[in-house]
Amino acid sequence: MTLLQIMPEDAPDRILLRTRDDERIVAELAEHGVTLRRWPVLSADPAALDDQALLDLYRDRIEEVCAREGMTLVDIARLHPEPTEEWRERAAKARLTFLEEHRHGEDEVRFFAHGRGLFTLHLGERVFAVVCEAGDLLSVPAGVRHWFDMGECPDFAAIRFFQEEDGWVGDFTGAPIAGRFPRLDELTGSER
Ligand SMILES: CSCCC(=O)/C(O)=C/O
Ligand SMILES: [Fe+2]
Ligand code: NI
Questions:
Q1: Does the annotation flag 114 for ligand binding?
Q2: Within a 10 A sphere around the Cβ of 96, how many other Cβ atoms?
Q3: Which end of the chain is more exposed for a tag (fewer CB within 10 A), N or C?
Q4: What pLDDT, in 10s, does the model give residues 39-84?
């Protein structure tokens, strides 16, 4: 289930709100222009599907988002666990890419077709940790400071929407804030 935990930007240990109530999560995020919608999950085993098959599965909804939000490029970010050292190294490297605070010049729109991942949003003087699960479509306005954690053992498939043809472009703030806030595994504990 989707989880939201809110903390002051200067006190990561002070939990102002922790909820799994979908309506509450949607409302809290909406106050900051962040949209969370739910789509039905259409495959129980997306790891068995290649990127094109996954995109085909969600084609109607993808086209809807592209038309509504002016998206021109769609890709898939994904990792599924493999029992090799080579995979662990690749996963650790991929994880580092998004772990520092950054923002984008366009909205960040992501659909989780599988697994989970933690978006931490720095909104005003508070930090919103949003654990997205399969079925979540999250839309974060351009310019919002944030970071993303795929966890120690990443397992997710996310459809990403871009307005610009050059795809993912991050503007890193250089602030050391992300290291002070809980990571995915800490927030979710042993849940699966
Ligand atoms: C869940 S998609 C991979 C992460 C990403 O694209 C991003 O911009 C994180 O902030
Ligand atoms: Fe991002
Ligand atoms: Ni998986």
A1: no
A2: 9
A3: C
A4: 999 988 888 899 999 999 999 999 999 999 999 999 999 999 999 9
For the entire predicted model, the pTM comes to 0.95
Ion ligand 3, residue ranges at CB < 5 A = 47, 80, 155
Q: Which CATH number fits domain 3-169: 3.40.640.10, 3.40.190.10, 2.60.120.10, 3.40.50.300?
A: 2.60.120.10
179 residue type, one letter: G
Q: Per-residue DSSP letters for 42-92?
A: --S-GGGS-HHHHHHHTHHHHHHHHHHHT--EEEEEEE---SSHHHHHHHH
**Could you report the predicted ipTM of this complex, rounded to two decimals?**
0.93
> What is the CA(120)–ligand 2 centre distance, in A?
10
